[in-house]
Amino acid sequence: STDNSVSVLLGYGNRSFQNQTTFSTGSLPQSVAVGDFNNDTRLDIVVANSNDNIVSVLLGYGNGSFQNQMTFSTGHYPYSVAVGDFNNDIRLDIVVANYGSNDVSVLLRFIIIGFMNRITLTAGHGSRPRSVVIADFNNDSRMDVALSNSGSYTIAIFLGDGNYSFSNLTTYSTGSTPMSIAVADFNNDSRSDIVAANYNSQTVSIFLGYGNGCFTNQSIYSTGPDSSPYFVAVGDFNNDTAIDIVVITRGTNNLGIFLGYGNGTFSSVTLKAMGYGSNPFCVLIGDFNDDRKLDFAVANKGTDSLSMFLQTC
After folding, report:
1. What is the pTM of this model?
2. What integer pLDDT is reported at residue 114 of this predicted model?
3. Do 139 and 180 belong together in one domain?
4. Can you tell me the distance from the alpha carbon of 281 to that of 179, in angstroms, rounded to the nearest whole number?
5. pLDDT of residue 49
6. Residues 146, 182: one domain?
7. Do 243 and 115 sit in the same domain of this protein?
8. 281 exposed, middle or buried (CB, 10 Å; 0-12, 13-18, 19+)?
């Protein structure tokens, strides 16, 4: 957002929303995540602000409004943020992918709302991490970290030990310029798998997890000519219990959907047009009309708007 704010749109449960309410953040916010950071059962917001190298934490009142931001330092040009409990103290911590400094910041939470000095995980020279996700990749009940490195054309895995520290990174080759990653179980083996959206090779890469922190080499699916896939998300979109994939293709202003077969393989992409000049930026998955079907909410950078796609079958 160029106006340095985060917008909150409260839903009515019938696919419509209240007008946005905005809350001030740092400069050039790039990514947002939610969680209960002070254990009051109310959702809070964390935002990665690229221009001033901070994250903003906005504590929620539980009524759709939020306190003024508190800020905490990160590495250079933070681009993506996620939340999880890395030291098993039942308090949510923050992890940030820092594009400019080629590293990851892990901010561990105090008893009161505050975060201790950050832990830095090096992603490698020229790695340019763009996206970060959290999951248990080796089934030890401890949270691990995965990155998409847009500069080195890899995903990177850091395994957590549940006590403030992480393994050295392990990398796997992707397509060209992976901009976004997501985690799900694509082959129903109760192990976390990864999908990456490769902006310059017009593909997505699938990595199946072995459950020990290691992954298969990539399987590649085309997103279409000149599609430039920028953002990826996952969910069961056709209620067949198999996880599917949706990508934002900024080059063609489309949503691309890959239906999963439940065995780690997927259909060819099906495209849904977003409209000329929409320049879609990201997609959020949720049931926005209470019909027990997953819908898509797409943020459009070109038109400063939110588009809704409701599942009808």
Report:
1. 0.94
2. 65
3. no
4. 11
5. 97
6. no
7. no
8. middle
Please choose, from the candidates 85, 101, 105, the residue with its C-alpha nearest in 3D space to the C-alpha of residue 93: 85
Q: How far apart are CA 149 and CA 132, in angstroms?
A: 9
Q: What pLDDT was estimated at residue 277? A: 81
- Amino acid letter at 115? F
Q: How far apart, in whole angstroms, are the C-alpha atoms of residue 61 and residue 59? A: 7
Regions in the chain scoring below 70 on pLDDT: 1, 110-117, 313
Q: Which of 190, 15, 171, 160 is nearest to 82 (CA)?
A: 160
**159 shares its domain with 193:** no
Q: CA-CA distance, 27 to 51, in Å (whole number)?
A: 5
Could you say which of 172, 189, 206 is where a domain stops? 172
Three-class secondary structure of residue 107 per DSSP:
strand
Strand ranges for 238-304 from DSSP E: 244-249, 254-258, 270-273, 280-286, 295-300
Please report, for the domain that includes residue 210, its CATH number: 2.120.10.30
Domain residue limits at 259? 174-313
What CA–CA distances, in Å, run from 91 to 36, 110, 128, 134, 225?
Answer: 8, 8, 29, 15, 44
Q: Tell me, what DSSP letter sits at residue 73? A: E
Residues 79 and 179 in one domain: no
Of the candidates 268, 234, 232, 269, the residue with the CA atom closest to the CA atom of residue 250: 232
